[in-house]
Design goal:
Elements: E1 2-7, E2 13-17, E3 20-25, E4 30-36, E5 44-51, E6 57-63, E7 71-76, E8 82-89, E9 92-97, E10 103-108, E11 113-120, E12 125-134, E13 141-147, E14 153-158, E15 162-166, E16 172-177, E17 183-189, E18 195-200, E19 219-222
Antiparallel strand pairs: 1-2, 2-3, 3-4, 5-6, 6-7, 7-8, 9-10, 10-11, 11-12, 13-14, 14-15, 15-16, 17-18, 18-19
């Protein structure tokens, strides 16, 4: 089970998989487990993740049965050491960094918030957790997230039929509607980084899906009018 994938500066991909961190060579298909995390507990799996500006890979865990408080956000350093950074997490989800690298944004979905941490690029330390964005009632639950080239946050809203853009001070700036309720994540791509790719799911759907969501589980793309920034690569 793959929760997240990121580019690796030495080639290939670094992955957050059910039992920890792994590496994949897409050319050969070879997969290597490089740093197990809670591998002895089958009720825990890794979920979303992203690389920070210094090349560390962050990814968090959650209970397979969505039990509250059993997850942890981990940091994988380039030397392949693993450090727990945030504990007591319920559903570890989207994260990204401000343009100046001094703030880390993080989502634990059931909190219905995007939180911010003071971030130290040189050491990878975090401190001073405070709310950054509060998701209003009825808008869905925050899932995956990315920061654009203007420093605004794009948040995928599970059961919200949308991705929304927020300013760093928490103001709702715009909304992109998606023809699938379970909007799960988003990322910028394309030669000019002006395309927003949006993933969706169909968790718990009946066989054949819901008639009003024939494309649920699909990958969507739009031009939102702003650009993203290139992804950071894992330095290990």
């Amino acid at each position: 089970m793959i929760g997240a994938a990121a580019l690796r500066s030495s080639g290939g991909l670094v992955l957050a998989v059910r039992d920890g961190f792994g590496a994949l060579d897409p050319a050969s298909g070879r997969f290597d487990m490089i740093a197990p995390v809670e591998a002895d507990d089958p009720t825990i799996r890794m979920n979303d993740g992203k690389v920070d500006p210094a090349g560390r890979f962050w990814a968090g865990t959650m209970g397979v049965d969505h039990r509250p408080g059993v997850g942890t956000l981990y940091r994988l350093d380039p030397d392949l050491r693993v450090s727990p950074m945030v504990t007591g997490v319920s559903i570890s989800n989207g994260l990204d960094w401000s343009l100046d690298g001094r703030t880390m944004y993080y989502i634990d979905t059931p909190t219905r918030r995007v939180d911010r941490f003071a971030f130290e690029v040189a050491t990878g330390s975090i401190a001073e957790r405070t709310p950054a964005v509060a998701i209003r009632d009825g808008a869905g639950s925050p899932d995956g997230m990315t920061v654009d080239a203007e420093g605004f946050l794009w948040v995928a809203l599970w059961d919200g039929w949308s991705v929304e853009r927020y300013s760093p001070d928490g103001r709702l700036d715009r909304r992109v509607e998606v023809p699938a309720a379970q909007t799960s994540s988003c990322a910028f791509g394309g030669p000019d980084l002006d395309l927003l790719f949006i993933t969706t799911a169909q968790e718990g759907f009946p066989p054949g899906g819901h008639p009003d969501q024939p494309h649920a589980g699909g990958l969507f793309v739009c031009r939102p009018g702003v650009r993203g920034r290139g992804p950071f690569q894992f330095a290990g």
